[in-house]
Request: fold
Amino acid sequence: MKSTPILIITLLITVILLTAACSSPTVPSSSTQPSILPTTNSNPSPATGNNCNQANPITQNTSSQSCALPTPIKDNIDQNSTPASTENTTEPEFGQLQTDYTILEIENSINEIFGESFAYHQNDEFPSLIFGNARKSVIIAQVKENIGDEQEFLAYATASNYDLASAYQNNSLIATLHVPLTSADTKYFKEYQNSKDIVLKIEKEQSIDLNNGRVLEYQLQYLKTDEFNNYKGRYAPSIVVYKVYCGPHAILFLKPDWIETERSSGGTIQDEQNNFMDEISHMRKDMLSKSDKLLKKCPVTYSFFEEMQDINTEKTTKLAYDRRIYWERMANVNLAATINIKNTEYRNISLVKQIEFSMTNNDAYSIRDELYLDIIAQADSGAEKMIISNKLLKSNGISSQESLERSYVPEFDTQYQDTLKLKILVHRTKNIENIKPIIFTYNRDGKIIDQQQVEY
Reply:
């Protein structure tokens, strides 16, 4: 029994020694070199890469530790936080996620929907427009300003703000029209009342709902009439265009390819309007279908148009055409006359020896008739005197963009002391109108000091 206390004491000493050994710090062996590299991480940052199985740059020893594949970075993002930026690798659907649409994409979509390979081109007259063909079936308007909402679209595209017609119509023909004159505007008012043509410029525009958005339908007509509102025929071809929003920097103009029916005069202007609406109704369905398909392709959703106001406008402008008024006041024709003089000491008189005349037709229209020249002189404040009378300028008229020059010696002695006025009249044999009549005023040295257009 005496051995029992000895056994207990021995067990206690053993437990104490084991406890002390476990709590003592481990001192590295002097033969073991401490590593200055960080502990290998199985999820390295992109900057450091994967350090597994890499040689220690100091010891050149290679660790045999195996490493798991790096965890994707997106899995390390806190689910409750919003990343500063993420890259969307999913191809967005047209009309939903895109914010713009390249011109090439627009052109390809138009070709696909119209089933035609358009030869897109631009010109110097309308540098912001891209034309699909010579018929102008399609026009892409490039917009520098950002069209961010439906109101900005309307502010840009509606007829009251955007002169689309000039890209389609014969502008030279439309330039022959003028606001009707009053008795205060011409001394030939009675003749003008009987000779002029009245032309109504009728513009209509309406918004149309489609499955994928809204478009604008624009109509333009120039109709000849009289004081009793009778229809007298068309003055210019009619225009129908559909305007399609295609992103913040592009608006598409689609024009149907149709040959307008030539209706003879008769009935009222309203009768002609009704006939015209019946005619375009046959092609409206096709044009709206193409417009809707383009809206689906373009970077816009129907919600873009939800706040857009309904458009339904009509504007009629009364204009007139008169051959005499056009050639006397509006035609783009330039007349010029310089004089060669001889100064005499006797009473300080200047004597006109020769007149150099020139005429340039910059107008879009040629003048086919024989052209004759009259020049009327007024020396100082004296009476007028014809010094060049009915001289033939050209027997077959003058073409557009053509010039001619002539030299004439006055038919009568022409002298003056201070100023000389020459009234230049170019006229036709078969018509009463003069072509841009003008008066030049010269000083004693024969220099032009004034010029003014006149009615004659």
